[in-house]
C-alpha cells in the first residue's frame, strides 16, 4: 500500500488520548460509558482532549444504549454544542424498530453537521439489510466511513462479509472507507489488508487491564508496528 493503514483508538479521556497518540494512533473515537457501548462525551471531555493531542477526533453522537435515535432534537443539540466547541468529525448511526436505517433521523442530524465528515458505526452490523442501508445512505453529505465487524458477533463471524464487501469497493454505496472494529485481533489483519482494507479500530485491544484501565501506549504501538510491517 502506498499509504500506511489508519489506526483508530477509542478514548474516554485525556489520559487515553495522550497514550494513544504516543503509541502511534492516527485518529481517536471519543466516547463515554462503554457499559452502554459508547455514548456522547461531554463538551469538556472533547475540549480537554483537543487541547492535549493533535490527532483527528471523531466524536460519538449517541445518547442511550441501543441504536434508536431517541429524542432526535437532543442529539442535534449535542452535535451543535460539540461543533461550537470545535468538533468537526463525528460518529453516528440510527436504526428503526425493524432494523432499517432511520433515514429521517439521519438526515436531521447530518444536516446539523453541515458537511462535517462522519462514520456510520456498528449499527450496520445490526441492520436487517446491510446492502439496502448502504444504498439508502449513499450520497449523504460527509459520510466517508463505515465502522463494521461484518456481523453483530464480531470479526470472527463477519470476516467473510468484510472480504465480500471490500471486493465491491467503488460500487454505489461502497465508496466509503471500511474501518474494521469489533472483536478485531492481530491475526485478522493479514486477510483484511490483502483484501484492500486499510483502516482498523481498537478499543479493548488497547487496554491490557480491560475497560477499567487506561489505554496503553505499548499496546497501541504493537498494533501500529503490525500494521506498518504487514502493509
From TrEMBL:
It comes from the Bacteria. It holds the Pfam family CutC. Belongs to the CutC family. This is Copper homeostasis protein cutC homolog. It comes from Streptomyces nigra.
